[in-house]
Design goal:
Layout: H1 3-8, E1 17-23, H2 30-42, E2 47-52, H3 67-78, E3 83-86, H4 88-91, H5 97-107, E4 112-118, H6 119-123, H7 131-137, E5 140-143, H8 149-153, H9 156-160, E6 182-185
Parallel strand pairs: 1-2, 1-4, 2-3, 4-5, 5-6
Helix pairs in contact: 5-7
């Protein structure tokens, strides 16, 4: 395994159940932490890895803070030994989730990964690069974010994947399921978003 990839991957042991939460983290906030702790409990995971993206292909990245600043802020917000922060996507030079998942599955086949995203992401999942291949390679957990629930489940991806959805009371089994498999987790009520924590010039509120 190339050394630079190994360095970008958090410590782990064979057989671990690891949730992957990708995002710009611009800025990271308490909702990221709450979603992660919620997923750790409901999905019976060992770790959550925050994959801080160099830039989201579906977002305007002009106001994106420097990667190092976002990484450091994410570590401070995470403040939980079960939540690790990684710059893997920058190291492998991609902004696409499919590339990240391909690398992780190929190089760390002894780990059981679950992709975690909010309902707002499921609503636009059909716009992601190779979204069907993502769903076919890794189980997914979608965290309800009212009022996005109906829009997410009625979206093209939500409809296309509906037959692979597990009952919510089986969420703890998700990491052991062959993909495609996903679960829609309800009960976490949070309205924070990174957009609401940014100033018009892209700086983070409370930092200037």
């Amino acid at each position: 395994m190339p050394h630079f990839v190994a360095q970008a991957v958090p410590p782990h042991t064979e057989g671990m159940r690891i949730g992957l939460l990708g995002g710009s983290f611009n800025p990271p906030h308490q909702a990221h932490r709450a979603i992660s702790q919620f997923a750790l409990k409901r999905l019976q995971l060992d770790r959550i890895w925050w994959l801080v993206t160099p830039g989201n292909p579906l977002k305007e990245n002009g106001a994106l803070q420097e990667l190092g600043a976002r990484m450091q802020a994410a570590r401070e917000v995470a403040s939980d030994p079960r939540i690790e922060v990684s710059c893997l996507e920058s190291v492998i030079r991609t902004r696409y989730t499919i590339d990240t998942i391909n690398i992780l599955r190929r190089r760390f086949s002894g780990l059981r990964f679950v992709w975690i995203m909010g309902a707002d992401n499921l609503a636009q999942f059909h716009r992601w690069q190779d979204w069907r291949r993502i769903a076919a390679q890794v189980p997914m957990a979608v965290i309800d974010r009212p009022p996005q629930s109906f829009r997410a489940l009625a979206s093209p991806a939500g409809q296309a994947l509906s037959r692979y959805r597990l009952p919510e009371d089986k969420a703890a089994l998700l990491a052991d399921q062959p993909a495609p498999a996903w679960v829609f987790l309800t009960g976490l009520k949070l309205n924070l978003s990174s957009t609401g924590l940014r100033n018009p010039d892209g700086s983070w509120k409370g930092t200037k």
